[in-house]
Design goal:
β9, α6 and β10 form a beta-alpha-beta unit. The strands form 2 sheets. A 5-stranded antiparallel beta sheet has the order 3-2-1-5-4. Strands 8-7-6-9-10 form a 5-stranded parallel beta sheet, sandwiched between helices. α1 runs antiparallel to α4 and α5 packs across α9. By secondary structure, it is of the alpha/beta class.
Length: about 280
Amino acid sequence: MKIWGHICDALERHPACARVTVVATRGSAPREAGAAMAVTPEGYHGTIGGGALEWRAIATAQAMLSRGAGSRRTSHALGPELGQCCGGHVDLLTEVFDRSALPDIRRRMTEASEARRRVYLFGAGHVGRALVLALAPLPFEVMWIDPRVSAFPAVMPSNATPLAPEDAPAVLAEATGGSLAYIMSHSHALDLAIADAALRNASVARVGLIGSATKRARFVKRLREAGVAEDRINGLICPIGVEGIRSKEPAMIALATAAQIASLHEQLQAAAQASPVVQRSRA
């Protein structure tokens, strides 16, 4: 979505802007299909993998800018053609937009925003603030919840929406399918209430809770007593973050947690793509 934002900004300053997208790959390639970059007469934003492929793509796009709106698909053998060790094959689509395309670009931005996985982040303390910053460049929609309005910073990333409801767990009633919930509020009692609501909500795919193994054991006992399903309790992530990072510095916890969120996102994405489409037969 950020690429479309850069294109909108560029069209405010220039008569045309280009978008270069990886539309297909075969063999080893530096970026996956869907990776994109915006190219202007001044430079570029984003990356399709760097190296000779990217520099050629930038040159091609900038040459096309002077000719106005249009598109061109090209195919590149990374080894024989460009001397890149990846050795794979990449197909690129270069599209040039002028200002007349702005309404359609804004529609695409809306669609891209709606397609992003939603992360419900409860708590605007030191770790919460660090995690919001760590997630800022990543393709997630962050709903940032804390009943303490004063806890939020004056400025925050564009993909974060601050919410300060009196009933924090109730926010999860609006969760979209495949959402993630990470809990790090200022109160253990509130953490438990949020964890209970998140684990009971089928739209929340995974739930992470900041704390130690001891905290997890205490919460598991309380959640079982409250009647939360065993399979959901077993999936509770606590402590949070990928293994191997032991530091308790907020920024380090955020780094480990952002990596875990990215990993969960890819796992859920792969599972969704692998699920067979069930078609109902008509009587």
